């Protein structure tokens, strides 16, 4: 009983600590700059500034609505593409007999040891030579393959019941048919977990969109947020309100997929 109470108290404390940043964002988003930077702290603004909600969209210097749309397009297409590419690669490494499969797998793992800074400049040169600067292609395609995601899919598929695939092959399905009609429908929890993590990662990416999206019309929401901080001025309540709006889609995605996220993480298949 005492141990359960202690575990419950620790869980509640961890949840409160997790929610503190969200509280600060919401509190400051609805406050004035003097209240944010003032010496006296109030739990919530004495006069809630509801007009702050529309201020990011009314700013003539930044097309915030366009940046939200760009982030949504990049996040969704990046997630779908990564799931397709990495799941196929992981399934091939786990199921298709090939004498060099382990070597390919080790090469994929080797990409995890290469710092991003090493490949950043060559990737930009390649994207620039293809004319993909300021385009969705340049923002999405270079990041479709992830060595770590491929590793997770391979480990998961190693633990997938072979009996289901063998039954599919008896019915005349090949590797592609077994993957698409048997494996994927029975792995939706894992796919949802990877999709959640990938979408959040794509939405929050900053450095690559900053370099590729040189025109303001190609800015993602993270780049737009950075534009609110300059050497001359910092509009605190505008930054916090824009931040609150930008994390709202992530919260919605997480709440919608949280059940599948937990189940999918439990099925990551590291045991394989």
TrEMBL record:
Domain named ABC transmembrane type-1: residues: 68-257
PROSITE patterns: ABC_TM1 (PS50928)
Annotated membrane topology: Multi-pass membrane protein
Pfam families (UniProt xref): BPD_transp_1
InterPro entries, per database record: MetI-like (IPR000515), MetI-like_sf (IPR035906)
Alphabetical list of Gene3D superfamilies matching this protein: MetI-like (1.10.3720.10)
TM ranges: 7-26, 68-92, 104-127, 139-157, 178-200, 236-257
The keyword Nucleotide-binding is annotated on this UniProt entry: no
Keyword line: Cell membrane, Membrane, Transmembrane, Transmembrane helix, Transport
Compartment(s): Cell membrane
UniProt similarity note: Belongs to the binding-protein-dependent transport system permease family.
Protein name: Carbohydrate ABC transporter permease
Lineage: Bacteria, Bacillati, Actinomycetota, Actinomycetes, Kitasatosporales
């Amino acid at each position: 009983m005492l141990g359960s109470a202690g575990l419950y108290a620790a869980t509640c404390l961890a949840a409160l600590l997790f929610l503190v940043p969200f509280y600060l964002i919401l509190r400051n988003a609805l406050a004035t700059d003097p209240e944010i930077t003032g010496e006296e702290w109030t739990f919530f603004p004495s006069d809630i500034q509801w007009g702050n909600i529309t201020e990011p969209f009314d700013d003539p210097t930044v097309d915030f609505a366009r940046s939200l749309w760009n982030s949504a397009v990049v996040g969704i297409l990046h997630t779908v593409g990564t799931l397709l590419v990495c799941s196929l690669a992981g399934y091939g490494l786990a199921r298709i007999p090939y004498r060099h499969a382990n070597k390919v797998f080790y090469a994929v793992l080797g990409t995890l040891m290469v710092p991003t800074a090493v490949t950043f400049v060559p990737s930009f040169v390649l994207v620039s030579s293809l004319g993909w600067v300021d385009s969705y292609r340049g923002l999405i395609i270079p990041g479709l393959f992830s060595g770590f995601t491929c590793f997770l899919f391979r480990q998961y598929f190693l633990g997938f019941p072979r009996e289901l695939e063998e039954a599919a092959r008896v019915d005349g399905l090949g590797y592609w048919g077994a993957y698409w009609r048997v494996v994927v429908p029975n792995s939706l929890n894992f796919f949802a977990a990877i999709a959640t993590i990938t979408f959040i990662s794509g939405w929050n990416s900053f450095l690559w969109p900053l370099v590729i999206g040189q025109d303001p019309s190609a800015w993602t929401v993270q780049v737009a947020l950075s534009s609110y901080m300059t050497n001359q001025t910092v509009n605190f309540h505008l930054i916090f309100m824009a931040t609150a709006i930008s994390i709202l889609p992530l919260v919605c995605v997480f709440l919608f997929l949280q059940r599948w996220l937990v189940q999918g993480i439990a099925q990551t298949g590291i045991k394989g």
